[in-house]
Design a protein that fits this description.
This protein is mainly alpha-helical. The protein has a single domain (21-200), classed as Hypothetical protein af1432 (Orthogonal Bundle). The protein contains nine helices and two strands; from the N terminus they run ββααααααααα. It has helices at 27-35, 53-67, 74-81, 85-90, 99-120, 128-148, 154-159, 174-177, 187-200; strands at residues 6-8, 14-16. The chain has a two-stranded antiparallel ribbon with strand order 1-2. A hairpin with a 5-residue loop joins β1 and β2 (14-16). α2 runs antiparallel to α3 (74-81) and α2 packs across α9 (187-200). The longest helix has 22 residues, at 99-120. The N and C termini lie far apart (40 Å). The model has no long low-confidence stretch (mean pLDDT 95).
């Protein structure tokens, strides 16, 4: 039996993880994958589902929009929404301390998936300024999620995680979607909302 490096997606398509192409998945596959891929190692102080990468991605986009002077182009907004898309295809959001142990092979696998995503969705390359602005939002959300979702203290966020960003009180998704701030959404809700945002930015 030959070794395989592909996974079967909900649509029935096969995604080759080693040599992915932009045609290996549907938008629905991506939304489902991101909604079932969890941040913080899948740990949460909330009952029910942990925080999905789909919900995090929407939060980063919402925060970035509020901070962007002059707004974002459609392509820039797509890039924000899809900044962690490879994690949904892989089904794994690796916590930062673990990455060095996984080595260069894992980094290359992520890079190949990211390149396929960028090609499929016509994502513009990051400029230094745009990457810096994105990173500030991503880190700000990480600090807030650590406290409001994963149960870290503010002191642990600074000392253990090394994040200096202030911990936001306001959930950037609350204005659009309502609900209890910072509560992780059920996977089916996260998938539907992510897919709607992706289609709106097509």
């Amino acid at each position: 039996m030959t070794e395989r490096a592909w996974v079967r997606l909900p649509s029935g398509r096969r995604l080759d993880l080693i040599t992915p192409t932009p045609f290996d998945w549907t938008d629905e596959d991506l939304a489902i994958g991101l909604s079932r891929t969890f941040r913080w190692g899948g740990h949460s102080i909330w009952p029910g589902a942990p925080l999905s990468v789909a919900q995090h991605s929407l939060a980063v986009l919402a925060l970035r929009r509020t901070r962007a002077r002059g707004g974002l182009t459609r392509a820039e907004a797509r890039r924000e929404l899809l900044h962690d898309a490879e994690e949904g295809l892989l089904g794994f959001d690796c916590i930062s301390p673990l990455k060095p142990f996984l080595g260069q092979g894992f980094a290359e696998l992520q890079a190949r998936l990211s390149a396929a995503v960028a090609l499929r969705y016509a994502l513009p390359p990051w400029t230094e300024e745009a990457k810096r602005a994105h990173k500030a939002c991503d880190v700000a959300l990480a600090a807030a999620e650590a406290v409001h979702v994963a149960g870290w203290t503010r002191e642990e966020v600074r000392r253990t995680l090394g994040i200096r960003a202030a911990v936001m009180a306001e959930d950037p998704l609350a204005a659009e979607f309502g609900g209890e701030p910072w509560r992780p959404w059920p996977p089916e809700v996260a998938a539907a909302r992510f897919l709607a945002a992706l289609r709106a930015l097509a």
